[in-house]
Structure formats: structure tokens, C-alpha cells
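Researcher: Let's run the pair from yesterday's discussion. Sequence first, then C-alpha cells, for each.
Model: Starting with the first of the pair.
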Amino acid sequence: MKTTEKSQLVKNIVSGSLRFEDRYISDRSTLDSVVKTLKQSGYRIVLTQGVYDLFHVGHKRYLEAAKSHGDILIIGVDTDELTRKRKGPNRPFDWLNDRLEILASLRTVDIVTTRDHNEHIYDLIRTVKPDVLVMSQTTEDFKDKDRQNLLRYCGDIQILPAQASTTTTAKLRRMMVDGAEQLGIKITTLINDFLKGINHESGNPVSPGNSHRASRLLQKTKARQPVIARKKSHR
């Protein structure tokens, strides 16, 4: 990146520009250069990392708490491949581009970049060398030994507790429960419609709540079918 381009980018970041192209820095060498310029200008750099899937109020509060530890907040967002590796084959629900755009639109966030599956979990931290590295208390990526090792690359490490009762896991659980309830309603409706159809064809009323009676009627209906077929073939 040319010096004039870098200066303009740094100016846009500091001024609080909400343009995505001013917030998203994918190239690590560019990120390294921009961060060095910001540090030389006296800005305190904060780095945090994560998936930020199904963005919720807990994420928002966490990022606000992280930003309170410095001037410039950088987020390393896990790629879709890394998310699947960490969270399982059915994640993420929100694709990387969507997650990046949501995060870049927040006033709390100054720079977004990515972490990929083929790099070491320390790599982004080594590049940024933040004044403060912020981690969630719920993360399983970094053990106590990791935190000690990481102090070689950052001035301080802050561990934040969950900022709300809402979590991505809790949100997923609610969605699954709601989905199961909706499925139950649809199945009940289909059964009722089916039984109504039998009532209409047989002329015998069948109560949807009387499953044994419905079962016997279905068996009788099936038993008649081959007899009727034989009569037709005899004719």
C-alpha cells in the first residue's frame, strides 16, 4: 500500500467512517502497517476474536466492553471454514461476508479482519501486537498456558464474562424448540385433515382424538381393497 493511501485509510478509520472498505482490512501486511501508524500516533489498540454468528445483544455489549480498554478496536472474525472446525459442520448460520458487514457497521468497531483455518491461533495476535487482548470467559481456544505465552505479544490480557443471558447457543436452542413446536402443529393438522378425508369417503365419523378407532377403520379400508380389485378383475 502506498504511503498516501495508508495515510488516508488511517484518517478514515480514526474519523469513524462507516464505509465497509474503510473498516475491513484483509491483507495482513496492510493491517500491520496501519496498526503501527496508529500506535505511533498514540492510539491504544485493542484486539478481540470470534465467530459472531447470529449476532445478538450479548455480542454488542461484549464489544462495547472490549472497546472501553482502548481507542481502536480490531476484531478477528473466524472464516466459515474455521467456524466449522471450531463449532461443527452445521455452523456458521451467517456467512462470513454477512458477519463482517454487520460488525463493520457498528460504531464500536474500528477494524475487522479475518482468521482462517490454516493459520496458527496466535498469528493475528502476533501481527497486531495489541496493547490489550480481550477474550471471552467462555472461550475454549486459549488455556492458562496460552495466556501466559501470549503476554509476549500484547501488553495486557482482559477476560470478559458473558455480557447477557442471551448466547448464540441459547438462541439456537430456542430456534430448535420453536421449530419442534411448529412441526408438531403441522403434523397434527395433517393427521386431522387425513382423518376428515376418511370420514368423507367412508361416511363414518372418525374423531381425531380417538386414535384406536381411526386405526381400526384404516385397517378395514385396506382389507377391502384387494376384494374390490378381485371383483373388478372377475367382471
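Model: Moving on to the second of the pair.
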Amino acid sequence: MRVLALMFVLCAVTASAAPDCEDPAEAQELVAYEPPVELDVLIEEEAVAPPKQELTVSPRPRVRPCKFRQIEAGRERMRQRGAVCGDWTILGENRKPFAGKFLGCGIAEPVRLRMVSDVFLSQLALMDCETAITLKTWLENTAKPAFADRGGGLKGLRLAGHYACKTQNNQPRARISEHARGRAIDISSFILMDGTVITVLDGWEDEETSDVLRELHTGACGLFGTVLGPDADRYHKGHFHFDTARRRSGAVCR
């Protein structure tokens, strides 16, 4: 019994001495405990003690490396900031799954966005994370660079549409729109830091803004599954339609 008690004391001391956050480079492999020679002498002196039994000592689990704790702390800060889709630059809130009044409408994992890559949205926009991340990629790779030398840069997007349980172009007997699946967003205007507003409707043919709007349109092609602008049809004269639909025939860019 004295042997077991001494072993428990040694294990407790070892456990209390372990650091709360162990760095991988400094972590050492734990080895099975081997009793000192003095314990063998004590065992021999106990004539009435039961035969010595081999004890299996399990090594203490290693403390999680600091980097994993830092990652978890970072995720918590993201949640407090309002980050969604696992991206600290996409701000909004997670919503519960829902279905619409028509077959095919609804979003399994919806998010409602208010800001993407420091660009605010004129209204809270409901979509899925794939569309949100694709929008972020387009903003960072195309839209923000395109306005870098205009009006102090891009400040916000004025939206004409996001989630809506409807058919394509609101036409009767048409197919369900990608808006109804949370995979689409419509952008009608671009707001710059100095207050300038560039609309798709008026700016598409304007000499001062035509080039930049066409750059935005071209930069979305291939990134999104569907890109429609003023030249596509009469339904898109005043806005860009972007969606993340995937087709066997490839992306649509008009």
C-alpha cells in the first residue's frame, strides 16, 4: 500500500508541474514510470505483503499545442465580431435553414450579410456561404482594385436583390431562379468613399465609367457561374446579376 501511495503522489506532482499550453517544439515524449531502487528495498521488507504485481502506468495525455488554442481563440473573436462562413472579412449572422413556398426554394445553411471585405451592403443580404465567399473573392480581386484610384476607393454596394423565392425574371412558368436557392446577388450601384455613386443603368454607356463597369463585369466571368449585365437582356439593364450555379456546359457570361 505504501508503494501505491508513493506512486500516486509522484504522478500528482508531475501532473501539476505540466504547463497549461505546451509548445510543439518544446513538448517531450512521456515515458512509463519506473520506481526507484529504494522502493524495491521497501517491498522486500514487507514479509506479509502480497506478491508484487506489475502495474500498467498510462502516460498523461499531452497538453494541446498553443497554436490550437490560439486558433480556437481566434474563432471566438470572429464570432464576437459577427464573422460567418469561417471568414473574418465576411460579417453578418447565421440563420436557420428554411424552405420557400415553391418547390426548390430555400437555403440549407443561410447567412445574412451586412459587410464583405470592408465593403458595406445597402441591405442585409441572404445567401449561402459559397455565394458569400465568391462575392468576397470578386470584391478583393476585381472590384476594390478597379476603384482604387477613384473617389478614395470602394465603400459600398447598392443591392437590387438577393434571396427571393421566385422564377427567373419573375416570368410565369419559368424555371426557379438561383435567387430562390440563395445563390445569387444583384448589384445596381457602387458607392465610393467620397460619396460618388456609379449606377449600372447610367454608367454602362457613360464615357467616364464605362471602362470600370466593364472591368467589373469581366472580372466576375468564370468566377461566378452566371454573370449578366446590361447587354444580356432587357431584364438586366440596370444591374449586374451574379450567381454560383454550376452547369455542365460551363459558365454563362453575357
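Researcher: Give me one sentence on the second I can quote.
Model: Residues 84-253 form one domain.
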